[in-house]
Amino acid sequence: MNIFSSLITGRIVATVSALVVILVGGGAGIWQLNRAEQKIRLGESLTAKLQMPVLKANADSLNLEQAGERRILARGRFIPAEAIWLDNRPRPIPEGGTGTTGQSGFYVMMPLKLDGQDTVLWVNRGWAPRNNENRIELPPVKTADEMVTIEGVAFPHPGRVFELGQKGDAKASPRIEQNFDLALEAQSHGWKQLPFIVRESNSAKNDGLVRNWPSPTSGVDRHYAYAFQWFALALSGFLFWLINGLMKYRRELVVNGDRV
Hints:
By secondary structure, the protein is α/β, with parallel strands linked by helices. The protein has two domains: 3-35 and 221-255; 54-214, no CATH class. The protein has five helices and eight strands. It has helices at 3-9, 12-50, 64-67, 182-189, 220-255; strands spanning 55-56, 71-78, 84-90, 104-114, 119-129, 148-155, 175-177, 192-200. It has a five-stranded mixed barrel. Strand 1, helix 3 and strand 2 (71-78) form a beta-alpha-beta unit. The two termini are 13 Å apart.
């Protein structure tokens, strides 16, 4: 009886099970490291672009490539009747800040009709808490009737969450959605709109919304911790398989009368 037969061919089920654990643990650990690296690169890119001059939505002809992750200044009137409430969004807590990070609520997406133009800019105005007992009872949010000037950062979308089934009815009131689709909104409303959304930055505005947006690198340490746990699982699976195999091999040597 050689050690190869004892460890592998004589324990096919155990070997395959250990291999699955190692592959799953190693793959998940690598994925977590990649997610951390993506967040670090995004944070570096955003930091660099925030140092660039502010773009003006009313004066500049902007596309997503030009405006992405840049500061945007826009003047216009909000259209509160067309607001979309994005559900299942965690309360934004900045790095080192305090608050209930597990609290779920809404991102309030509202179109801004640009002053002097027939163009609409979708604005993520901020986060509002959800009524856990009655989902469609929306929190009070103040919206100015007059012309306003907002400043924020341009993104392709407000972030996506896992979604089951079809999107809700665009004519429903209130419109509570899981995700936001710029192209779909342009098609359903038939209006001209800029090809990006702006996440409003003013956290001092007293309108019932929270805008303490965290850094893109928020959670990097958590990804490293998860990666360690997954790699530890993979290593534990390998060691368990190896130690049990060696013990089986030693027992077989004793049974066969070989010297251990």
